[in-house]
Amino acid sequence: MADPTGDALRFETRAIHVSQEPEDLYGAVNVPIYQTSTYAQPEVGRPKRYDYARGGNPTREAFQTALASLEGGTHAFAFGSGLAAETTLLLTLAPGDRVLLPDDVYGGTYRLLARVLRAWGLEHDVADMTDLEALRAALRPQTRLVWVETPTNPTLKIVDIAAVAEIAHAAGARCVVDNTFATPYLQRPLELGADVVVHSVTKYLGGHSDLVMGALVTSDDELAERLAFLQNAVGAVPGPMDCYLALRGLKTLAVRMRAHCEGARAVASFLAEHPRVRRVHYPGLPEHPGHGVARRQMRDAGGMVSFEVGSAEEAVRVASSTRLFFLAESLGGVESLIEVPAAMTHASVAGSPLQVPETLIRLSVGLEHPEDLIADLERALGGA
Ligand SMILES: *Cc1c(COP(=O)(O)O)cnc(C)c1O
């Protein structure tokens, strides 16, 4: 299931062709869903390719190979969720090691380190990664991983991946980038110097809100060998049906991301002009503090927008009054979603260093017509 054509092909073409040749027996143009837990072996101790599906599955391998190509990496590993991918990556560390987290890290990542892995001896520190001096000051001799998210959740701060990777390497640490919000269509961290990319495939890569899955991508052979071992030894693997759906999601990733960006730009511009909106967070707006870095390291500004209104009550009222934007957690699907982070996604992680304003509303701008989405927001904002 190698890349038949090499990396000379462009992103859109690789998303459809890498590891997705027609199947041998009938010529099916889609990679079959190999719904099997085990494989008959022609001889004792000599499996054809796979011996047991925790260790390998052709549908999973097709997804992994395609994703590695899109991220510009040489190895990818799929897991049962984004957090399962993160857990497996963190299990490459040892007791006494430290992870440096951004101060607005995804809440589930913070909870995993603070409330699960700390008991196993893995420690963490926290820094504002948009401030490179603060980042340097937070590094310790035991820091093994510097964890980056960009754009961040939910205030869409932009972190300079190349600069952070350089500082991490100088300190003898690896740089991990959670690329869930940007996707490889908009941003390829490995090309900017990062060592590992983490994905919640649940979001844009799957793209249709119909699966939960995660992935890791790297070009570091030593780390990849350890991850391959842990993927099987820990066993937090996805099923073949989800791998099929994720592979199908990759085929349309480029066109979906272009439309997500176009819709988000229109929505952000509308919000920036609205009298009830105090502040809009969207890296595509020239007044966003990370706009310059975003232009350098991203192809476009993404599909997530957040904004502040006058009061916590108003935030709840607006988020409860849209019709097209569904009131829900998660992001990255074809349907637009709205939520109040302080009361929803960011309420579940008590003790997190992140203070989210109660007046903040987060949008995942879907693929509906932008004018319909703007009319929906206008109605919701106006009806006090
Ligand atoms: C959702 C999410 C995760 C966790 O992924 P799951 O698939 O829900 O386990 C990690 N990082 C970011 C940025 C996310 O949005």
Segments where pLDDT lies below 50 for 5+ residues? none
**What is the overall silhouette?**
globular
Radius of gyration: 21 Å
Helicity range: 25-40%
> Class by helix and strand content?
alpha/beta
Q: Order of strands across the biggest sheet?
A: 1-7-6-5-4-2-3
Q: Report the order of strands and helices.
A: HHEHEHEHEHEHEEHHHEHEHEEEH
Bound molecules: pyridoxal-5'-phosphate
Explain what you see:
The chain has 13 helices and twelve strands. The protein has helices at residues 11-17, 58-71, 82-90, 107-116, 132-138, 161-170, 183-186, 221-234, 240-251, 253-273, 291-297, 312-321, 370-382, and strands spanning 75-79, 98-102, 123-127, 143-149, 174-178, 196-200, 214-218, 279-281, 304-308, 326-327, 337-339, 360-364. Helix 7 links the parallel strand 5 (174-178) and strand 6. Helix 1 packs antiparallel against helix 2 (58-71), helix 10 runs parallel beside helix 13 (370-382) and helix 12 (312-321) packs across helix 13. The longest helix has 21 residues, at 253-273. It is globular. The structure holds pyridoxal-5'-phosphate (PLP). Residues 81-83, 106, 108, 149, 153, 178, 180-181, 200, 202-203, 212, 214 line the site of pyridoxal-5'-phosphate (PLP).
Structural key phrases:
384 residues; alpha/beta; 7-stranded mixed sheet; 5-stranded mixed sheet; 13 helices; binds pyridoxal-5'-phosphate
Which secondary structure elements does this structure contain, and how are they paired or packed?
Elements (H helix, E strand, L loop, with lengths): L10 H7 L40 H14 L3 E5 L2 H9 L7 E5 L4 H10 L6 E5 L4 H7 L4 E7 L11 H10 L3 E5 L4 H4 L9 E5 L13 E5 L2 H14 L5 H12 L1 H21 L5 E3 L9 H7 L6 E5 L3 H10 L4 E2 L9 E3 L20 E5 L5 H13 L2
Parallel strand pairs: 2-3, 2-4, 4-5, 5-6, 10-11
Antiparallel strand pairs: 1-7, 6-7, 8-9, 9-12, 11-12
Helix pairs in contact: 1-2, 2-9, 10-13, 12-13
Bound molecules: pyridoxal-5'-phosphate (PLP).
